[in-house]
Amino acid sequence: VWVDEEGCEATERKRMRLELLHDNCRETPDKWRRIAVKDIDDFVTCCFTEQGCKDYLACNGHNLRLPFIYVKSGFRNAEYIGIRNWLAGIGKGE
Hints:
- The chain has helices spanning 12-23, 50-60, 78-89, and strands at 2-3, 33-34.
- The protein has 94 residues and is mainly α.
- It has two domains: 2-34, no CATH class; 50-89, no CATH class.
- Strands 1-2 form a two-stranded antiparallel sheet.
- The longest helix has 12 residues, at 12-23.
- The radius of gyration is 24 Å and the shape is rod-shaped.
- The model has no long low-confidence stretch (mean pLDDT 90).
- This is Ead/Ea22-like family protein.
Protein backbone atom coordinates (compact mmCIF):
# COMPACT_ATOMS: atom_id res chain seq x y z
CA VAL A 1 0.00 0.00 0.00
CA TRP A 2 1.24 3.47 -0.83
CA VAL A 3 0.41 6.24 1.66
CA ASP A 4 1.21 9.93 1.68
CA GLU A 5 2.60 11.90 4.61
CA GLU A 6 -0.95 12.36 5.97
CA GLY A 7 -1.64 8.62 5.92
CA CYS A 8 -4.03 8.67 2.95
CA GLU A 9 -3.84 5.77 0.51
CA ALA A 10 -2.93 6.41 -3.11
CA THR A 11 -5.63 6.16 -5.78
CA GLU A 12 -5.42 3.15 -8.08
CA ARG A 13 -3.89 5.27 -10.86
CA LYS A 14 -1.32 6.86 -8.50
CA ARG A 15 -0.52 3.45 -6.98
CA MET A 16 0.24 2.04 -10.43
CA ARG A 17 2.57 4.97 -11.22
CA LEU A 18 4.37 4.64 -7.88
CA GLU A 19 4.75 0.87 -8.34
CA LEU A 20 6.24 1.42 -11.78
CA LEU A 21 8.80 3.84 -10.35
CA HIS A 22 9.58 1.44 -7.50
CA ASP A 23 9.90 -1.61 -9.78
CA ASN A 24 12.33 0.26 -12.04
CA CYS A 25 14.48 1.35 -9.05
CA ARG A 26 13.60 5.00 -9.58
CA GLU A 27 13.00 7.48 -6.79
CA THR A 28 9.44 8.02 -5.68
CA PRO A 29 8.20 11.43 -4.52
CA ASP A 30 9.21 12.15 -0.91
CA LYS A 31 5.64 12.46 0.31
CA TRP A 32 4.85 8.83 -0.63
CA ARG A 33 5.99 5.70 1.19
CA ARG A 34 5.27 2.06 0.56
CA ILE A 35 4.08 0.09 3.59
CA ALA A 36 2.82 -3.39 4.35
CA VAL A 37 0.64 -4.58 7.21
CA LYS A 38 0.36 -8.15 8.39
CA ASP A 39 -2.29 -9.29 10.86
CA ILE A 40 -1.07 -12.05 13.17
CA ASP A 41 -3.57 -14.17 15.07
CA ASP A 42 -2.91 -14.44 18.81
CA PHE A 43 -3.71 -17.65 20.70
CA VAL A 44 -5.80 -16.83 23.78
CA THR A 45 -7.25 -19.96 25.44
CA CYS A 46 -7.83 -23.69 25.12
CA CYS A 47 -11.22 -25.39 25.50
CA PHE A 48 -12.28 -29.04 25.39
CA THR A 49 -15.55 -28.38 23.52
CA GLU A 50 -17.02 -25.87 21.09
CA GLN A 51 -19.51 -24.85 23.78
CA GLY A 52 -16.60 -24.13 26.12
CA CYS A 53 -15.18 -21.82 23.42
CA LYS A 54 -18.51 -20.06 22.99
CA ASP A 55 -18.90 -19.61 26.75
CA TYR A 56 -15.40 -18.16 26.98
CA LEU A 57 -16.09 -15.69 24.15
CA ALA A 58 -19.41 -14.69 25.74
CA CYS A 59 -17.55 -13.89 28.97
CA ASN A 60 -14.30 -12.41 27.62
CA GLY A 61 -14.89 -11.65 23.92
CA HIS A 62 -15.21 -7.92 24.62
CA ASN A 63 -11.45 -7.90 25.36
CA LEU A 64 -10.57 -9.41 21.99
CA ARG A 65 -10.29 -7.92 18.51
CA LEU A 66 -11.91 -10.14 15.87
CA PRO A 67 -12.13 -13.28 18.02
CA PHE A 68 -12.60 -16.67 16.37
CA ILE A 69 -12.70 -20.31 17.41
CA TYR A 70 -9.75 -22.41 16.29
CA VAL A 71 -9.45 -26.13 16.95
CA LYS A 72 -4.93 -25.26 20.40
CA SER A 73 -3.66 -22.37 28.41
CA GLY A 74 -6.47 -22.39 30.41
CA PHE A 75 -6.50 -18.75 31.61
CA ARG A 76 -10.01 -17.86 32.86
CA ASN A 77 -11.43 -21.02 31.31
CA ALA A 78 -13.71 -22.62 33.92
CA GLU A 79 -14.12 -25.80 31.88
CA TYR A 80 -10.36 -26.35 31.59
CA ILE A 81 -9.68 -25.45 35.25
CA GLY A 82 -12.37 -27.89 36.45
CA ILE A 83 -10.92 -30.79 34.45
CA ARG A 84 -7.37 -29.86 35.46
CA ASN A 85 -8.32 -29.81 39.15
CA TRP A 86 -10.19 -33.10 38.80
CA LEU A 87 -7.18 -34.73 37.11
CA ALA A 88 -4.83 -33.32 39.77
CA GLY A 89 -7.03 -34.86 42.49
CA ILE A 90 -6.91 -38.41 41.09
CA GLY A 91 -4.98 -40.71 43.41
CA LYS A 92 -4.86 -38.27 46.33
CA GLY A 93 -6.80 -40.59 48.70
CA GLU A 94 -9.13 -37.83 49.99
